[in-house]
Amino acid sequence: MGDKTGEGRSYSNLGNTYQGLRQFKTAIEYHQRHLDIVKKVRDKAGEGTSNGNLGKAYQGLGQFKTAIEYHQRHLEIAKEVGDKVEEGISYGGLGNAYQGLLKFKTAIEYHQRPLEIAKEKGDKVEAGKSYDSLGNAFQGVGQLKTAIEYHQRHLEISKEVGDKAGEGTSYGNLGNAYQGLGQFITAMECHKRHLKIFKEVGDKTGEACALCFLGIIFECQGSL
Predict the structure, then answer these.
(1) Which long-range contacts (CB under 8 A, 24 or more apart) does 57-62 make?
(2) Is the full-model pTM beyond 0.85?
């Protein structure tokens, strides 16, 4: 009875669940309720997490400038309470939001920070995510060879930690980068692996993307 902290946690969990279903407007409503509660009970760490979740939800709606405001607040709180893990997550969120605005150079600066933190902490999973994000950002500025290095590192870590979905994503990103270099045979090999993995894990969206990319390569080769 009267457990405001538990109530707030429930709102947060509901927000994350709706976010996973890509129902971002509903997710925002729940994350906002969580934020209101953690402010009332003066839970700074919870306030930071809530701001981060709101940033991700607004990002899902394509409202990148609003997302940046929430990620910035998350970062300020993470520094205030001395939480390096949350600090890394907020830098990653800012990098993704700036990437959404096609500000790739700024995104690269932000994505470098969580990579450094993950390395300090020895967190392979978070390091892998940062390599993935950096690869995409370098791809955005047309530095495809550098992008390939980062995507390759993400692939190695995904295999090491047994993250099949991450492995599939890496192959997809590598395929796109090789395609950009005009190396269509290598790109096709990557996308075939990408397709195989997403079929295995039952990810229909990933499977569709792989088929789309393969179609584009055949088109580039004149195999209509």
Answers:
(1) 57/15, 57/19, 57/24, 57/27, 57/28, 57/31, 58/24, 58/28, 59/93, 59/96, 59/97, 59/100, 60/19, 60/22, 60/24, 60/27, 61/24, 61/25, 61/28, 62/100
(2) yes
